[in-house]
Amino acid sequence: MAKIFYSLGFLGLSALSVRGQAALYGQCGGIGWSGSTACVSGSACTKLNDYYSQCLPGSASSSAPATTPTSTGTASTPSGTSSAFTILAGGYDTFVATYSFNPNTKSLTLISKSPTGMDPSWITSHPTKKNILYAVNEVASGQLQSFDIDSKGSLSSAIDTISSGGDSPAFAVALSTGQVAIMNYNSGNGRIIPTSSTPEQFSTSASVITFPRLTSGVSHPHMAVEHGSEVLVPDLGGDMIWRLVQDGSPGNFKIQGSIPQPQGSGPRHIAIYNERLYTLHELASTLTVQTIPQAPNGTASIIASASILPPNPPAGAMFAAGEILIPAPTTKFPTPYIYVSNRNTGVQDPRGDSIAIFEHVNQGTSSEGLKLVNQVFTGLDQVRGMEFGPADKNGDQYLIASGVAGSAGVIVLQRTEGGKNMQIIAKNLDIPTRTSFVWL
User: Which SMART domains match (predicted)?
Assistant: First the structure.
């Protein structure tokens, strides 16, 4: 996890033009706002909620979405929803927790705790065999472990354990190739580890990938995303997204190129949707969108950048962006909204940290941009991990989340208003903090 955060000075700075007018998609009003309330030509200041107004194309009357206070919205359980979901949760402890979420009774129940190695902070399932789980051990001598999952959601003893090749792996993901990528935050390296006779058995052949230490002098790889034949790795310390390709046999990868990010922004996590690369920047607390440059070293400018910070934070708040999710659109949720989490490491807001909801608008036009739709406050302290349920089980209307600090436990939110809003429908306080989730 990153230890260095930018101050609140980022709030709203990118939204103002040199002429004192708020830029297109910039903030122009809301409770506590002291900046410009005038928008650049061709846009109008439109109220989104009591705390945030934004410069949107055209007139306010034609482009304003309905005002959606964060505490409202009607949630219901549609027919076809499974009677209960089983959800695994990792954290900074020596176990993976198993929860049962029942949408009909709106209850979240702790079922079991399965022993693991130390600090299984990030867990990920096999892409096709959902009864197999991989977990990091985020410690100085990092490890990757594999487990079987029984019918009740409990884990077997660790079937295999292998070194991550470095210090404090904060992320792992199973790839479609049968390999598992694991990235070491503190030591600036990682491995992409093949499995052998079964998906639970690791091959020892994987080499260690060491990322360059650029002008900042540090490398903090924080994620890996498979995209075609590449694996993209955002480097929070190097302000870079590295482009990896397999170099010969499985387990051997090389850096073939890179996608530079704004200096000092700290790219933490990324998502790819509809030919666009979305990057969540931890240190700058911004969300950016750009095209994916041609491999290996093509260039693409950032199309839009937006602050994810909640409005009117308490004095002494310090923010660091956490997670980004873009659930695929469905009939019930036709718009692919972007959900990003804030983490306040300073003076806490009584409402807890927020999840900001954005819409990517006008793709392919001169007015392409990111529009803030809502800020949903969770009551949680530093939302590092959150995950939507499976769409094939009608679970994508639910989001499970927890904080990495505090004692607010685990919550389930339900999407409302087509995904523009969410409301908390279930909570469990048995374990104070969790950091990652897998829906079974």
Answer: fCBD
Residue 218, phi then psi, degrees to nearest 5: -135, 155
Distances in Å between the Cα of 66 and the Cα atoms of 69, 119, 312 are: 10, 43, 21
Strand order in the sheet with 143-148: 123-125, 132-137, 143-148, 160-163
Going along 131-207, which residue ranges are E strands?
132-137, 143-148, 160-163, 169-174, 179-184, 189-194
Amino acid in the structure at residue 311: P
12 pLDDT above the threshold of 70: no
State CA 327 to chain mean position distance. 11
> Beta 95-102 vs 85-90: how paired, if at all?
antiparallel
Between 153 and 17, the more confident residue is 153
422: tokens are: 């969410």
- Rg over alpha carbons for the chain, rounded to the nearest Å, is 21
Structure tokens at 410: 């685990």
Residue 69 CA, chain-centre distance (Å), reads: 23
Alpha-carbon torsion angle 426, 428, 432, 437, nearest 10: -70
Residues 6+ apart with CB under 8 A from 235: 188, 211, 219, 220, 221, 222, 241, 242, 267
What would the pLDDT profile of 176-226 be if each residue is shown by its tens digit?
999 999 999 999 999 999 999 899 999 999 999 999 998 778 999 999 999
Contacts of 337 (CB under 8 A, 6+ apart): 326, 327, 357, 358, 359, 373, 419, 420
DSSP 99-133: EEEETTTTEEEEEEEEE-SS----EEE-SS-TTEE
| Kind plus residue range of the DSSP H or E element containing 257 | strand 253-260
Per residue in 263-281, pLDDT tens? Answer: 999 999 999 999 999 999 9
Q: Residues 209, 188: contact at Cβ < 8 Å? A: no
Exposure b/e, 76-109, CB count within 10 A at least 16 = b = eeeeebeeebbbbbbbebebbbbbbbbbeeeebe
Quick check: pTM over 0.70? Answer: yes
Are the beta carbons of 203 and 249 closer than 8 angstroms?
Answer: no
| Pair 135, 148: CB distance under 8 Å | no
Instruction: Give the DSSP letter of residue 68.
Output: -
Q: Compute the distance between CA of residue 324 and CA of residue 326 in angstroms, rounded to an integer.
A: 7
